[in-house]
Design goal:
This protein is α/β, with parallel strands linked by helices and about 350 residues long. It has 2 domains: about 325 residues, Thiamin diphosphate (ThDP)-binding fold, Pyr/PP domains (Rossmann fold); about 35 residues. Helices cover about 45% and strands about 10% of the residues. The strands form 2 sheets. It has a 6-stranded parallel β-sheet, sandwiched between helices. Strands 5-6 form a two-stranded antiparallel sheet. The radius of gyration is 21 Å and the shape is globular. Bound molecules: thiamine diphosphate (TPP) and magnesium ion. Magnesium ion binds next to strand 5. The site of magnesium ion has 6 residues, from strand 5.
């Protein structure tokens, strides 16, 4: 199916149109219970994101990158993954964490400033978040190479933004993946901006998906506000990776409805009209219309899902805030099993500075 969409022509895979109508041909055929679960995950993600923003404004959270508008990519992709697959995230992936079952309290704890929140619980194959743009891509390729040598039959997924495609790491990673046919699924969350830099200033290519052509493997552009389109593309790409048919690049075309982070003001570089246009394309709204047409959504279901999301979020906040605050040691604790001498010296300096400034 992926190969039927020519990335050079900018054809986008779509399953649901903007009015919530199903389009013939590519529906992944999920059972009703799964469809409702996907919606619940999207609602939880939106609620958890909105809460994070409020906490930041109240001084209870650190700098935070909101992801309103990305829910279809986040939930569609991870809903298609299997337990054994690995995930190498970027910094705007809240819905991935929620869908993969990472405790929200841990995720909040991280953005509250404590790196202990990055420790993935046993049984979840999630790598720590990469803040340096694109650096997770070669790491994901290395992990996929290892999986291939060990014949694990798993896929290794990594996400990154449109801005990351200008980094050397992107090109080195994809080139290597193409040559060695690693079991990778590369997902570019093209939200059309890298902070204030628009996509047109990032690359002269018509699409990001077409970059896969140069590396010798399939690339597909999907409507990133259509959760079933993302799911369908991801399921096929994951299957190809697991079965030894090599990597795929998925470009999910979407929009970040909020600011880049809580220290940004997107109204300085994007128009109100543009934002309003994308609010009409809201991924939750579209999926809700689709579910309603299938008789799977009504007001009572909405209330049930919203109430459950509020409870889920409030529990995570209470749990994260009940934990001890970060200490100076925490800044140094989570990189090496045994701290190298230069870091130990820096930690001693920091402690001396703190105790002196308290005197
Ligand atoms: C190597 C590197 N350069 C610059 C930055 C600063 N920075 C953080 S996010 C960002 C833009 C990323 O844009 P994109 O990849 O499109 O992801 P998005 O934020 O839009 O989700 C930049 C330049 C960084 N974190 N790492
Ligand atoms: Mg971007």
């Amino acid at each position: 199916m992926i190969e039927r969409f020519d990335p050079l022509k900018g054809e986008k895979l779509r399953v649901i149109d903007e009015a919530g109508e199903p389009l013939a041909g590519f529906d992944p055929g999920l059972p009703d219970s799964e469809l409702r679960l996907v919606y619940e995950r999207m609602v939880r993600t939106r609620a958890a994101d909105a809460k994070a923003l409020k906490l930041q404004r109240q001084g209870r959270f650190g700098t935070y990158p909101p992801s309103r508008g990305h829910e279809a990519v986040q939930v569609g992709l991870t809903s298609a993954m299997s337990r054994g697959d690995w995930f190498f995230p970027y910094f705007r992936d809240l819905g991935m964490y929620i869908t993969l079952g990472y405790p929200l309290a841990d995720y909040y704890h991280l953005w509250m400033g404590n790196e202990a929140g990055l420790r993935t619980p046993d049984g979840l194959n999630i790598y720590p978040i990469s803040i340096p743009v694109g650096s997770q891509i070669p790491q994901a390729v290395g992990a996929a190479m290892a999986a291939k040598y060990r014949k694990l039959g798993i896929a290794v997924v990594t996400t990154f933004g449109d801005g990351a495609t200008s980094e050397g790491d992107f090109h080195e990673g994809l080139n290597f993946a193409g040559v060695f046919r690693t079991p990778n699924v590369f997902v570019c969350v093209n939200n059309q901006f890298a902070i204030s830099v628009p996509r047109a200033r990032q690359t002269a290519s018509a699409t990001i998906a077409q970059k896969a052509v140069a590396y010798g493997f399939p690339g597909v552009q999907v409507d990133g506000n259509d959760v079933l389109a993302v799911y369908a593309a991801a399921r096929e790409a994951l299957g190809n990776a697991r079965d030894g048919r090599g990597p795929t690049l998925i470009e999910a075309f979407t929009y970040r409805m909020g600011d880049h982070t809580t220290s940004d003001d997107a109204s300085r570089y994007r128009s109100k009209e543009e934002l309003q246009e994308w609010e009409r394309k809201d991924p939750l709204l579209r999926f809700r219309m689709y579910l309603a047409k299938k008789g799977l959504w009504d007001e009572a279901f909405e209330k049930e899902v919203q109430d459950a999301a509020t409870l889920f979020v409030e529990k995570a906040v209470a749990e994260a805030e009940a934990r001890p605050s970060a200490t100076p040691d925490d800044i140094f604790a989570y990189t090496y099993a045994v701290m190298p001498p230069d870091l130990a010296a820096q930690l001693a300096d920091l402690k001396a500075f703190i105790s002196e400034s308290r005197r």
